[in-house]
Amino acid sequence: MNKRELNIGWQLFLDFWRKARIAVFILIIAYGGLFSLMIHEFGPYKFFNPRFGFFYFLFSLSFPCIALIPQNTRKGQEIAFNGRLFQLPLRTWKMVFWQMISPMIAVTFVCAVTSLIIALSSGSHYPWPAQALVYCVMIAAGLAILWSIQESILLRLVVFGVIESLLVNYLVLEFEEQWYVLTIGKCFESLLLILCFYAIAVAGVARDRRGDAQPWTWPAEIWEHWLGRSKTRGKDLRNPAAAQFWLEWRRKGHLLPAAALFFFLTFALTWSYFALRHQISAHDHAEFLSAYAWNCFFTIILISVPFGLYMGQVHSMRRSDMGSFFSTLPITDAQFSRAFLKTGAGALFIGWATNLLLLGFVAILFIIAGCGYVVTDVIQDFLHLRKEDFLLIKVIVIVLIAWAAISTSICMTLAGRVFVTWFPGALILTVLFAWMFLGIDFPDSDLIRLFAKSLPWIFSISSLGYCLYLYFRAIYSGHISPGWAILALLPIFYIIGVYYKVPNMEVQGVLTSRVLWLVSLAVAPFAAAPLAISHNRHR
Amino acid sequence: MAAEHIVQIQELTRRFGRKTALENITLDVPQGCVFGLVGENGAGKTTLIKHMLGLLRAKSGSVRVFGLDPVRHPVEVLGRIGYLSEDRDLPEWMRIVQLLRYTRAFFPSWDESFAQELCATFELDLHQKIKSLSRGQRARVGLLIALAHRPDLLLLDEPSSGLDPIVRRDILSAIIRTVADEGRTVIFSSHLLEEVERVSDQVAMIHAGRLVLSGGLEEITAAHHLITLRFEQSQSVCPNLPGALSCQGSGQEWTVLCNGRMDEMQSAAQAMGGRIVEERIPTLEEIFVGKSRA
Q: Which residue of A112, A315, B148, B159 has the fewest C-beta atoms within 10 A of its own C-beta?
């Protein structure tokens, strides 16, 4: 590279730094702080344990975000390489090099500073060079996928899921060897992978720069064709509510099943990798199947918040407001909002149904492979839970939590104001962090114990008050009739009634407060959603 | 009364932070007319239209469309309005055929044969995706959706901005066609004043959030005069005629845009020692510029 090209490269790096510095800062705080806390809580041995592989995987996925946001731009509805750079007098391979190396340097920096924070706070040695190398490979892979596959979000997701899972399996889960002893061989392997992804990225960006057509449009076409085959195709949509639900379902209904599939792929690949590399006992198989069975349902809860935030968008990712087209449709705010809640509920249902199907599929694979006894063991475990009368309660609680999470997130985005979306989220996170710090630093404090005891009641009474206020506002604004409001609030009245009827107040009190809190959160969105739409639509 | 006036706005004021977007606007739009809303960029035209659609709540004053509050009765009001927005906002991922199917469900008065006719007139490929449409094609799709349910009120916000003459012609003929249906009303905002002058019966002029002029186009033009005055001796300042809005010239000859009766101006000119050498009806653009600078 000559001096001018180096100068351009430096400017590109500075541009990245300007855009990414806040993300880098947040990551350092989050990683340094969280990891320090976890080491403090679990001890270094447990923390650096391969069983935390999935946890690492989730964290690892957030790293490409520092590359994703500043190094890409929106091209129509898609995220793509920043096309404005094409006018720079720089060869494509050099341009891709600078765009790829900048986030890698940032990630290395984050890892080094995180290591320093952990060393200072807990005295543990945090093996950052190997980890930084793993993250660099993941960034290269993520950018290569984004820059070479366009016009098909689904294909992107599948490829991303498969490649990143393989990478996590190959690089992260081997960390007992690699984390502490970074051999030349491992370095060479990682660099080779980075080079491969770099070559794929260069090919994709070069094609984009030439303006050639995308070769990967067929999955999107198949998907469109498949969607168009529905029974209602060509038929008139009955009424505005049906039309709005059709639109929302078509745009967002497939998201949770896709996430379930993604989770399944990750788990299947992880397990296949382990099965190939290590000696696996029948007990391990049973543990795997049981872990998958529980985690696939819990994952839906985990992703309900980000998916709900996405599903509540009326216009598109680009705009928080409704836009003039949707806000001038002759439909009531209540009907409009119901379409979003129905989509959320439907997506949850289909997501779980997909999980059940995949679980069945995995069970069949086990039976075919001659490990049918593993399936029987797991089923017996479940039946054992049934005997203790916990299974039904657990299922209801999981359903309620998932519904409360997705519907509340939908309402937050429906409001169409950035502060309404992010302020409660930031508040909840702050409370949780504060709670973690308080709980760790002053475990024997009377004040904290009192606070801990009263916290469920504080939450339940405030969420009940919030729920009743929303219903009052919704009735007053004409979004919901008093009859429907009473019907929706019946479970809450029932729980309060149970609390006064049950003799063992001390035990039931704690349980009732939690149930009341959960049910209030689950019921509130029916009133909150039309109010949020109204807030967004009539400014 | 609602039957006579489709839109009734009373003392509407709207502020965004410290900026006053609309100040004390009182406006009635009669039924069956083409109502032109003119004003420079940022004058408050779109804000006023958004109030008519119920997208903005009247914080001070009131807005009634078909005699109803558009915020409290969105279905009743919006079901009778066809709206083409300035940003041609449409769901990008849809194909035109899907968009028509979706939109049709919202309007019981949807006229399918008219929609097909408009599709053919506008030469739209029904299977094309919205995101791949040009600006002009987007405007046509937006217009199709606004017209196909034969609305009682057609609201067009800057319909011609950034469009080629052929699409502009389509839009103007749509306006004419809508009005040809008895009793229907068109409100359109524009800063292309020749266009407004060509099709409007009524005009309202907004400047910096204030309504500076409102009435029938003929009345407005008849009430204004562009007068050229000649003086025996050179004048150092602009002659102060009654109702003068703007003045140009120097020395012995001055051109003044006035609002008032012609005989009053003649006597005023004589009193100042000048005489009217030319008088003509000003264009809407000249009145607009004069009012904006006054």
A: A112
- Smallest Cα distance from A538 to chain B, Å: 4
A103 vs B80: CA distance, rounded Å: 53
- Decide: B43 and B189 in contact? Cβ < 8 Å: no
Each residue's pLDDT tens digit, A233-284: 566 777 899 999 999 988 888 888 887 787 777 777 777 766 666 666 666 7
Per-residue tokens: B284: 């809407």
Distance CA A93, CA B259 (A): 68
Do β-strands B34-38 and B60-65 pair in parallel, antiparallel, or remain unpaired?
unpaired
Residue of B nearest to A240 (CA): B106
Q: Please report, in angstroms and rounded to a whole number, the separation of the first and last CA atoms in chain B.
A: 34
For A428-471, how does the pLDDT look when each residue is reduced to its tens digit (9 = 90+)?
655 555 554 444 444 556 666 676 677 777 777 888 888 899 99
The C-alpha atoms of residue A10 and residue A13 are separated, in whole angstroms, by 5
The first and second tokens of residue B279, run together, are: 């008088």
Q: Which domains does chain B have, with CATH numbers?
A: 5-208 (3.40.50.300), 221-293 (no CATH)
**Against a cut of 0.80, is the pTM above it?**
no
User: CA–CA separation, A434 vs A336, rounded Å?
Assistant: 38
CB contact at 8 A, A336 and A243: no
Backbone angles phi, psi at A66, to 5 degrees: -70, -20
Secondary structure element (H or E) that encloses residue B16, with its range: strand B5-16
Q: Which of A407, A381, A406 is nearest to A394 (CA)?
A: A381
Q: Report the distance separating Cα B157 and Cα B137, nearest Å.
A: 16
Does the interface predicted TM-score (ipTM) exceed 0.90? Answer: no
Residue B15 touches chain A, beta carbons under 8 Å:
no
Exposed/middle/buried for residue A388 (C-beta within 10 Å: 0-12, 13-18, 19+) = exposed
**Beta-sheet strand order (sheet of B274-280):** B244-259, B224-235, B274-280
Residue A74 has which token pair? 């929106």
Q: What mean pLDDT comes out for the span B31-60?
A: 88
| Residues of chain A contacting B79 with CB distance shorter than 8 Å | 330
Alpha-carbon distance of A257 to A110, in angstroms, equals 34
**Cα dihedral A475, A478, A480, A482 sign:** positive
CB contact under 8 A, B72 and A478: yes
- Distance spanning both ends of chain A, measured CA to CA: 54
Place of tokens 């709980």: A439
Assign residue B150 a region: left if phi > 0, alpha if psi is -120 to 50, beta otherwise?
left
Residue with tokens 């984004």: A146
Measured between beta carbons, the chain B residues lying within 8 angstroms of A478 are: 72
CB atoms A330 and B57 under 8 Å: no
Residue B280, min C-alpha distance to chain A (Å): 42
Q: In degrees to the nearest 10, what's the CA dihedral of B117, B119, B123, B126?
A: -140
Q: Centre a 10 Å sphere on the Cβ of residue A362 and count the other Cβ atoms it contains.
A: 20
